[in-house]
Every structure is written in structure tokens, then in C-alpha cells.
């Protein structure tokens, strides 16, 4: 009787642990893992809304620009703003099983370029030459976050993440018209709430792909707009709001510490 009871207990324990083992996503999310990811590598879909509010002489003007795109390997994201779709490197750590704490770092540089247009004869006679430098852009940002890894199979896990992101963006362009330079500089700062649930696909231990939606909700933002020409410099402060929703992909891996 005792022997039969022992066999029953062992069989019940095996039946209980077998499904659990099949749901561990190859150990992804166990305690003490250092997770490295490359996030937002391909923006499959993007929708961005940018609003600027400016007050001059007691009159407040609000302008909103919206853009969306579908991208599969080749394509262009919305030009109104790219801060939320810039690829980034992130580090997370599982402080306990499934619970992750970490963040991402965003660094991007656009070196710009130039174009030149000659008109002959010019409206006022002679030849008119106009050259324009393409905007050079620098983006710096940091995004602390927390998350929770929930295995749903041997190769799948749901990894919802959430946090805040702070960005500093500087854009500068110069236009030359008959020897007179006009330089425009925009200095933008943003703070947003980020909601980032991802589906992780774990084909082999310690490596995964991830795909999922992104929601970036603006909390605050401002722009310092400066125009310098002929020794004169005009500066305007503008309220700025950038709202973004998208779907993107990335990849990552982890180390057991």
C-alpha cells in the first residue's frame, strides 16, 4: 500500500512539474540575470503627433503636425520626430525571478550635408547663389524602467515594461544667400511616460528576439528656437509635446550572474 502511494505521489509530482518546465522560456527571467538588448531596431509602424505652442504679444498659437508610416526592411519613418524610434542599447537585471529593473541609453548623431542652387539671371539681375546645409542633429537620452517577464511556453515570454524617458535634442542648419549666413538652432527637451509591452521569442538559451507595441505619452517639453543672421540673434521659447505610438522589433541576450 505504501509503495503504491509513493508511486502515486511521484507521478503527481512529475505531472505538476512537467508543464512548468515547458513554460520556462529556456530560463529567461530567472533571478540574477543581466539582460542586454538592442531596442527599436526596426520601426514596423509609427504614428507621431507633434504640437508646438507659442505666445507672442499676448496671442497664443498652437500648431500640430502628424505623420505615420509602415516599414518593412526598407522605408521611412515620420519626419515630424524620430526621437522615439531611434535604436538604443538597454540593460536590465532580474532582482528577483521575473522582475526586471534597468534602463536604456540613447545616443544619435546626424552629421548633415549641403545643397547649392544657382539662378541666372536673378530677378534683380546678375547671378544669385543660395546654399543650404542639411540640419545636423544630436539626440541624447536616458530611459529608466521596470518590467516583468512572464513565460508562456518553451520559446515565448511576455515582457511588459514601463518607465520614463528624458531626451535632449539639438538641431542646427545654416542657409547662405549671396554671402549672408542665416543659422537656425533648435534645442528641444522632452520627458515622456513609456509603456512598452514586448513578446520575446527565445529560440536558444541566452538569446531572444522581441516585438511589440510602444506608447510614449508626453509629460512635458520645450523648445528654444534661435535665428542668427547679420549679427542679429532672435530667441523664442516654445512649449513642445510629442506623442508617439508604434510597433518595433529588437534582439537581446542574457548572462546568469
What descriptors fit this protein?
257 residues; 1 helix; elongated; eight-stranded antiparallel barrel; Porin; mainly beta
Could you characterize what this model shows?
The structure is a single chain. This protein is mainly beta. It has a domain at 22-114 and 127-166 and 194-221 and 241-256: Porin, CATH 2.40.160. 8% of the residues lie in helices and 68% in strands. It has one helix and 14 strands. The protein has one helix at residues 2-22, and strands at 33-56, 59-70, 88-96, 99-110, 114-119, 128-133, 136-148, 150-151, 156-159, 161-177, 180-195, 198-204, 207-229, 232-256. Strands 1-3-4-7-10-11-13-14 form an eight-stranded antiparallel β-barrel. Strand 10 and strand 11 (180-195) form a beta hairpin. It is elongated.
How would you concisely characterize the structure shown here?
Helices cover 8% and strands 68% of the residues. It is mainly β and 257 residues long.
Amino acid at each position: 500500500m505504501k509503495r503504491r502511494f509513493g508511486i502515486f505521489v511521484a507521478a503527481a509530482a512529475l505531472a505538476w512539474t512537467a508543464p512548468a518546465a515547458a513554460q520556462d522560456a529556456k530560463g529567461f527571467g530567472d533571478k540574477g540575470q543581466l539582460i542586454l538588448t538592442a531596442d527599436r531596431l526596426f520601426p514596423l509602424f509609427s504614428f507621431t503627433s507633434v504640437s508646438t505652442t507659442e505666445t507672442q504679444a499676448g496671442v497664443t498659437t498652437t500648431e500640430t503636425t502628424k505623420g505615420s508610416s509602415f516599414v518593412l526592411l526598407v522605408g521611412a519613418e515620420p519626419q515630424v520626430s524620430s526621437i522615439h524610434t531611434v535604436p538604443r542599447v538597454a540593460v536590465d537585471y532580474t532582482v528577483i525571478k521575473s522582475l526586471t529593473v534597468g534602463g536604456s541609453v540613447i545616443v544619435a548623431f546626424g552629421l548633415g550635408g549641403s545643397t547649392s542652387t544657382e539662378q541666372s539671371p536673378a530677378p534683380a539681375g546678375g547671378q544669385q547663389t543660395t546654399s543650404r546645409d542639411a540640419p545636423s542633429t544630436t539626440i541624447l537620452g536616458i530611459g529608466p524602467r521596470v518590467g516583468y517577464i512572464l513565460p508562456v511556453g518553451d520559446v515565448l515570454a511576455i515582457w511588459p515594461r514601463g518607465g520614463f524617458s528624458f531626451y535632449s535634442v539639438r538641431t542646427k542648419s545654416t542657409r547662405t544667400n549671396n554671402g549672408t549666413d542665416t543659422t537656425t538652432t533648435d534645442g528641444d527637451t522632452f520627458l515622456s511616460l513609456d509603456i512598452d509591452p514586448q513578446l520575446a521569442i527565445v529560440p536558444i538559451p541566452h538569446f531572444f528576439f522581441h516585438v511589440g507595441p510602444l506608447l510614449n505619452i508626453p509629460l512635458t517639453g520645450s523648445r528654444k528656437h534661435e535665428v542668427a543672421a547679420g549679427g542679429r540673434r532672435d530667441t523664442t521659447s516654445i512649449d513642445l509635446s510629442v506623442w508617439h505610438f508604434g510597433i518595433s522589433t529588437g534582439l537581446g541576450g542574457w548572462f546568469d550572474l
